[in-house]
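call fold(seq) -> tokens
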Amino acid sequence: MSLNSVNIMGNLTRDPEMRYLPSGTGVCTLSIANNRVYTKDGQRQNETSFFDVDVWGAQAENCSKYLSKGSGVIIEGRLKQDRWEKDGRTQSRVKIVATSVHFLPRREGASQGPAGGSPQETPQDVRPEDIAWDE
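ret:
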């Protein structure tokens, strides 16, 4: 038995990066920041963690089209560890592979994003079947 599940909310730290595999499958890489606020010795503390997220298929296309730096998202997915050799040493990193990306409403006055979309073209116009994607 195994369990590998993650749910996280955060904001994009940069614009999404879209690329395509030779097979034509799209993958969009997001980088998000998640803030944790807690109290230690009576003082409010902030802890920020940064995560790389891979989103695949039609959902990747929608992320690339509608999200931009600062966009809020809720990610559902799993953790994946990549390992490789560099200069004779094993390197690794853990990233999130998204199974679902939920777009959070934009704050008033926020920009439309890198695609230069019109005000009518917002994440609220995307149908759930356009963004829900399971591996």
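The beta strands are 6-12, 17-20, 26-40, 43-56, 72-86, 89-103.
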